[in-house]
Structure formats: C-alpha cells, structure tokens
Amino acid sequence: MNKNLGSQSGFSLVELMIAMSLSLLLILGIATVFSSLKNTSSYSQQLENTQEVLRFTNSIFSRAVHRADEMDDNSYTGSDGGTYQQLDLTFNLDNLDTSESYSSCLGNPMASQYYESYRLTDNELLCAEYTTAGLDDSSKTFTAIGTNIDSLNFSITDDLLTVTITPTDETDSIQMMFAQRQVILGLN
Asked: In whole angstroms, what is the distance from residue 63 CA to residue 65 CA?
C-alpha cells in the first residue's frame, strides 16, 4: 500500500484562527457573567449584613428601653483619649409584671434592680450589666454583643431615645426611636 502524503486532511490555519476566536469570545462572555454574579453576591451579602445589624440593634434597644425606669446618655473617655457616648439604663423589676422573667443584655436572669450600659468600641456594640448604683466605668465589665457598626449615637428627649446607627460598609445612618413603657402606657 502506497500512501499519498499530499492527501492528508486536517484543519487549515484559517479554520484554527476562527475556532480560537470563537473560543476566546465564549470565555470572555463567561468571565463577564461570573464577574457580574460575584458583584451581585457581594452586594447581597453586604445588604444582608446591614439588615441584620439594624434588626439586632432594634431588638436590643426596644426591649431594654421599654423596660427601663431611667435613661441617661453619658460620655466616656476611650483608650485613645477620645470622648464617646454611652447609654446607661436603670431597671427596677419591682415595677414590672412579676409573672414574667427578665434577663439582662447578656442574657443573665435578673430579679431586682439592676443597670446596663451600652457603648460602641472598635465597631462592636458592648454591654455591661451590674447591680451597684453609681459604679464607675473602670469597674464595669463590657462584653461585645454586636458587630459591624461604624457609628452609634444616643440622644434622649424626655422619655424617648433616638439611636443613630451606621452599619459597616454603609454611608447612610439610620435613626430609630424608642419609648419607655411609661410613655407608651401614659404613666408620666
């Protein structure tokens, strides 16, 4: 058998160039779709984080302020020498429904008068619970209860607390207002 070397078949240079161009276009299309999906996923995760921070903050402060007998927005000096805001709440459980059980911001059961302090340090919402009135801040033990918060400010007008919060990665602040039960029940 005599093979003719000139009759071999295969792809021509033009056909290879067209196939490579089409493959490159297909890869670029897939990369663009992947990049778009990645950006959408990142934005969705950021939005979810923002919603969770706001939901958590609303839950913590609505529960605490509603039960509080007294509120005070104080300032404290941080380790960096800056002045920051702190919310101090006083609770007298003798004034509340005795059939319910009450827990502090740290989840510990409380049965009499106690106090809570809230502050923001290093993007973490901190809480301290204590039972001694007039305790200085250096004697309080603060525990992180929330994260991903860039700024947190408190403002008290009469018996209404306004909390202004900026979640991490957000440029806009959200304001939430909370009323003590005395205002809601008209006991003032």
From this structure: 6
